[in-house]
Amino acid sequence: MARPSIVPIALTLDDRTGYTLWAPPWEEDGEEWQAFLGTTVEVRSDINDDDPEAPVPTAVVHLFPSPAALAAFCRASTDHDLADHPVWPVVAGLGAAGLTPDEDHRFDLDGVYDIAAEDPDRWAVEELAVTIDIVSRLAECLDADDEDEDDLDDDGTEFEAVAELVAKPEIGSLGLGAEAFIGRSGEDAWAGVGGALDDLWEDVVEELGEHLDWTGAGTVAVADYPSASESAPIVVDEDEDDDDIEPVDVGTPAAATAGVRTIAGGGRLVHDPAAVAAAAEFWEAVGILPVEVVVPDGAGVTLRCYVDDVARFLGRDGEVFLFDTPADLARFCAGTETHDLSEIASWPEVAVTDTLPLPADQDRFDLVGLAEVLGEVADGAAGLVSHAALAQPVEGARDLAEYGRLPRVEELLAPSAPLGQAVARGEREPDATLHQADAAAVRPAWDEVVTLISGKLVFRG
User: Fold this and answer.
1) pTM score of the predicted model
2) What are 168-179's pLDDT values in tens digits?
């Protein structure tokens, strides 16, 4: 059983996107628990009913129009189902950035028909699988009939359509991946997935919709939710009040198995995933990739490639040029200033392309975010971050230090040094979490790494 964790998620339904929190299954006192940010409320029966019944207790999940609204609620309220969760005190202190879901925890319930109409490639199969999985988890947590099992038949459930859908063999095949839909039998199974959704999905979302609170526990109005089809990707404003912004992401995919804090992909720039994927085709073809780096002085984007397996960045004499936005970086690339990538064979293509340099998640290195969570663990929040969380920031640090000719960084990351030992353990035991003493030993070394690397970064206009 994984350690207790809380993951920010987004649900899109009826052209609205709401933000909430999910606590994946964890064990406490010998029992397994799972919960969403919600509570039980008294819901009136239909006022147009000829024989209206008294209000009945109904479990609901609170949804909010933005991560900032979610963060404000978490800071102010403890009247909900996650208030007693082991890591709630950490979550309650997070700002909008810390409660912004990553792409793996955004679930578009409106889009399932479009996905089922596509070919059963890896993306389509995984997208349907995770969407149906989160719906079944919601139903499991919200099903009041589960609390009255002694008075019901074994099949008693408030979510009959959900239960019928997940019981379909074709739907179960989604968990096997795209390989389950190869060949003639696979085509038939994929057609069966589409047929099951055609028959049941409208009933599924209707059942679920009765338990979704689009008022944010009375803190917002339905009109506060922008249209999902018109809303732009969320961008965290670094100029907002510090009380509202935390630069560390929560609940990336590792969080469901390792704890509430991880660092993978913890950047500051947010872009449409489809645009990032489209841009990646060009940048991978030329062998020069956009990279985002976050240090105490700020966040910026640059370019990186490898020459004879040695990292080389957009810069000169060991100093890396960083730009505030991909557009600023693109304008520089179109100019005539010489730098250490000028001699790369594919550079002429970079200089004339109109494809924006948008960093992929695996090429975003938040060195500040790791420092902050190490500080939290050292201060007593042990068990909330895994050793594996060091991997991505350390990868970026190694490359930057290699280009910047910083041998001291390699000394700090040596297998015999505390930081190097922590990184090595993450490779051996990805789920092992940092203890307070480990973090206390590692934090000074990481701070020195960040300081040394920051001295090699030049922010360009």
Assistant:
1) 0.52
2) 999 999 988 888
